[in-house]
Each structure stands twice: as C-alpha cells, then as structure tokens.
Amino acid sequence: MYKIPELDKLPEFFHAFSSREDGNMANSINGKVVNFQEVIKNRKKFLEKNDIGINKCICMWVTHSDKVIVADDKFAGLSMRNYNYARRVDGLVTNKKGLYLFLLVADCLPIILYDPVKEVIGLVHAGWKGVDKEIVKKAIVKMSKYFESEPQNIVVGIGPFAHKESFFKESPSQINDARWKPFLKRRNSGENQYKVDLVGFMRKQLSDSGILEKNLFISEVDTVTDKGFFSHVREGKLSLAKQGRFVCIVGLKTTS
After folding, report:
1. Which residues, in sequence order, are CB contacts of 153 under 8 Å at separation 6+?
2. What is the DSSP string of 111-150?
3. Count of alpha carbons within 13 Å of 57, Cβ hemisphere only?
4. Can you give the CATH number for the domain in which 89 is found?
5. What is the pTM of this model?
6. Domain range spanning residue 43?
7. Domain for residue 94, yes or no?
8. What is the spatial distance between Cα 249 and Cα 70, in angstroms, rounded to a whole number?
9. Number of separate domains in the chain
10. What is the pLDDT of residues 42-78, one digit of tens each?
C-alpha cells in the first residue's frame, strides 16, 4: 500500500493506493474480463486493511473520456461486486462522508482533489486522452458548481504514474497542437518517438484552473520502472494472467 505523504497528514481525508502485492483490482484488462471472483477477494482484502467496507465504495469503469459526475451512493457496493454497474466515467466528485471513490489505473494519472473548506473530494483518471481533453479542469468546475468549492482551497495529489522518462508515443497526433508543444520531446534525433510529459501538461491545467502550487503534491513513483505497481507500458504484451491494475481510493472520514 502506498500513500502520498502530504495528503496522509490531512485529518479529515483518506486516500490509499494498492500495490502489486495486493493483487489485481480490475474486472477487465484490455477489454477482456478476468477472474472477477478473485478480483472481489483482492478488493475486500485491501479494503479490510483500511477498515473500509465494500458497500461504502463506488467503482469507476474508465472510458478515456472527459466525463465527470457527482457520485450517487445508490451504486455503492453494487458497482464493486457487479462490474455491469461500475460507473462509466473518468471522474467522480462528492461531499458525502463515508463514501469512497474507487479508481483503477496502471500508468495513467490518478488525480486526487480535496477541498478541506467545503469538505468535497474528487477522483479523476487522466491518460493520454483525458489530459488532452483537459478533464481535470472539468472536475474542478463540477466541484465549484455543485459544492461551491474555490480552486485556491483545493489540495491536489497525483500519482503513481508513468513519468516522462518512461512514456513514449510514436508520431503523436498532437505534435502540431500548440498546447502540447512544451510537453512533447523527441526521444532521439531522427526518430518519430516522443517523450510525453503528461504531468507537466496537467500541472499547467491545474494552474490555469486556479490551483495553487503549494497545494499540489506529485508522487515520485514511476509505475513503468517501479515493479511494485502494475504497468500497462511494461506489461501490456504479457499474458492476461501477468497483468493487472492497482487502485486509488479516496474518501471523507466520518466522525464516528
């Protein structure tokens, strides 16, 4: 299990990431459904370590979109035990204490949002497409619209994820996009592979949205090189049994 140290100090807020030793947490990998009963066992075991009941969690099924919704607790538990009810979105926000948001990742950016003033949380999945669609800006707008959060109060945590030294794209379509230009660097002279700085572009989007630099905390863990975490970049060509996804879970603690 892994936590971002600065976020772990926040008294009313909970977050955690599973590691490889906690087992695969995803019902589907590359569009193929895995042994879901084994996945449920892994989820329950990890949650029990953190004194969280499975019926308190809402699971996302990411679609690489920019869709962010307010979490509906009627899907708590159900979306964890039956993948057909997992919320097909890339971001959830809520102000309900004791309700935990559950996101599966392997190299993409797991972005945690926490407003300690209005007591609101958000959890966002941002891969290549999500960063391009600037999903984090939409999540911040959603928190402002529904819960009156002010960006300067929001604390943000990112990671673990694939760092720019480990994530490459072949002839990316965004190469002529002015927004992306500072965050794409040719790997070697004469090659068409580019290093992609997802977190660099995300940092700019957060700044543009009014997030303060002092409130941004980025994990140093690179999922591609750290074998303690699942990685699609590193393991995507292996057999399904050797792949997996780890989880990021966030929630507002109850007072009881």
Report:
1. 115, 116, 117, 118
2. EEEEETTTTEEEEEEE-HHHHHTTHHHHHHHHHHHHH---
3. 28
4. 3.60.140.10
5. 0.93
6. 5-162+212-252
7. yes
8. 16
9. 1
10. 999 999 999 999 999 999 999 999 999 999 999 999 9
